[in-house]
Write a structure and sequence with these properties.
Elements (H helix, E strand, L loop, with lengths): L4 E3 L11 E2 L4 E2 L5 E9 L9 E9 L7 E8 L2 E9 H5 L8 E8 L8 E10 L5 E11 L2
Antiparallel strand pairs: 1-8, 2-4, 3-10, 4-5, 5-8, 6-7, 6-9, 9-10
Bound molecules: 2-acetamido-2-deoxy-beta-D-glucopyranose (3 copies).
């Protein structure tokens, strides 16, 4: 399966019309506390880009940040990508502050209907896991 993966970071916490996951699990570290996770648009559709954004407080500066996105369906990994955030934002180290981490992805045309497990993560220069969040998204027939 082919998938597109883009990642970027903004420091401004903005509030577009997004769906907020009530149900997420925080598999990250003390260095980051999640305030919310949003999905835009509300409904994920095949071949259309969707964004998942993790909002929260970064409690210590982080350098050489690698962002990861893993999407699983029925225990099979469909997307597993890593991206060098510092090369993209060019403002590293990222200072301790409230940040949003938006990640875009696309599910291909032949994606089966059902529930997908999504893991968003970020590591620092010491390869320590800073951010990690697990959410589920549903894809209709
Ligand atoms: C996803 O994020 C990108 C980059 O900011 C933006 O251009 C696009 O409109 C967003 N899509 C949705 C559905 O929010
Ligand atoms: C999930 O995986 C199991 C074991 O590989 C397989 O038997 C089953 O058909 C799969 N279900 C779906 C919905 O793809
Ligand atoms: C981060 O957000 C929290 C809650 O919204 C707020 O209390 C805090 O002052 C913010 N911190 C910074 C550094 O902006």
């Amino acid at each position: 399966m082919k998938a597109i993966f883009v990642v970027f970071l903004c420091f401004a916490v903005f509030a577009p019309a997004v769906f907020s996951f009530n149900d997420y699990s925080d598999c990250g570290s003390q260095a980051f506390s999640i305030s919310s996770i949003g999905l835009s648009p509300e409904k994920v559709v095949r071949e259309k880009q969707f964004n998942i954004t993790v909002f929260g407080a970064l409690k210590k500066d982080a350098d050489k940040v690698q962002v990861g996105l893993e999407i699983k369906f029925n225990d099979t990994v469909l997307i597993d990508k890593k991206s060098d955030l510092c090369k993209l934002v060019k403002t590293c180290p990222i200072k301790a502050s409230n940040i949003s981490l938006p990640i875009s992805a696309v599910l291909p045309k032949n994606s089966p209907a059902g529930q997908y497990q999504v893991r968003i993560s970020a590591t620092n220069d010491k390869n320590e896991k800073i951010i990690c969040a697990l959410v589920k998204i549903n894809l209709d027939k």
